[in-house]
Amino acid sequence: MSVRRRRRSPFRRFIAPVATLAILAYFTFHAFNGQYGLHAQIVMAQKEVELRAQLDTLRATREDLERRIALLQDGNLNRDMVDEHARRQLNLARSDEMVIFID
Predict the structure, then answer these.
(1) Domain ranges for the chain
(2) Is 44 within 8 Å of 38 (Cβ atoms)?
(3) Is the pLDDT of residue 19 over 90?
(4) Rounded to 5 degrees, what angle do the CA atoms 44, 45, 51 make?
(5) How far apart, in whole angstroms, are the C-alpha atoms of residue 62 and residue 68?
């Protein structure tokens, strides 16, 4: 009785390392370029800086408007503010005044 042995392929020992490298390459690629990868974090940080600057501008505008509204409320009327508001609403000016429109 003879026993035949199958010859082992020389490529068989490379299957596990190649599969491991493929998996590592996949995860490394997505760590840098994925939705939450390093590149996306840099873009999000730049966007955060822009949005914080916009928020600061909006807060300053809001505080200015709140301060102006406080001057127009009952019991605390400022004559200059009432005069300015009325002239702006009615588009009136005196003959000796110069009007400069600022957007």
Answers:
(1) 12-90
(2) no
(3) yes
(4) 85
(5) 10
